Structures are given as structure tokens and as C-alpha cells.
Amino acid sequence: MIGLAYLAVQVISFAGILVIDHRWKLAAFRAPAATALAVTAAVALLLTWDVLGVRSGVFFRGQTDFMTGLLVAPEIPLEEVVFLAFLSHLALVCATGVVTAVEHISRRRGARSGGARSGGAQNDGAHNNGAQNDGAQNGGAQNDGAGARP
Question: How far from 37 is each of 16, 19, 42, 55, 139, CA to CA, in Å?
Fold first, then answer.
């Protein structure tokens, strides 16, 4: 039973990040296919790195009583794959979380300063949330800029 402790901690941690992801729709719950592709690609890349490290003698499996002992490849335990998937998903959640937080702060500051940036009545820059857009992107009710679409 103790042999599943490390894997159980990883699964619980992964579940915690999934809860955060679900609450704020940051990665898997915003774009599930893109998230699955990104996590799969990252895990494949990192597993390739691990295999190369094992073959060169740099990496080796450290066995403890807390690990399952199940190997997916020579010197690569099951817990490594779970950890790499967790790490990849965590990176996506953190990155999109930071972007979302910055956008939220920008919208709040723009609303307090009279809407000169985004979300206000007029938008003269590259943002496209306002009612009038004189900038390079289209998205407002009226667009007098270079990015107007027919």
C-alpha cells in the first residue's frame, strides 16, 4: 500500500490543478483539444529527454518504498510519466492564469480611468473591446482604422 503513496500524492496534486483550471477555465476547460495536444507533446518531448539521459547514463531510477515499481521503459517509472503530465498541465494553467489576471487588471484600470484602453466607450489603440475603434484591429461598432474589414 505504501508503494502507491508517491503516485497518490501526484494524482491528488493533479486533481487540485484541474479544480483550479475548471474554476477559471484556464486550459483544459477552455480549449480541451489544444491542452491535450500541448500536454501530450510536452510529455513526449520530456520522455525523449529522459530516455536519452538514461541511455547516456546520466539518469537512473531511484527506488523507494513510496513508488509503485512499475516501469514504462527501462529506468523510467510510471510516476515519471504522471509527473511530466502534471508539470505540463501546471505550466499551461500558470501561463494562462497570468495572462488572464493581467487582462483582468487592465480592464479594471481602463474602466476606472474612463475607458481609454479597453472596455470603454472609445478605443484608439490596438485593443478591440470598445464601442469605437480607431486602431489597427476590428471589433468595435465603428472602425475608422487600417484594419477595417468589408
Answer: 21, 20, 8, 27, 29
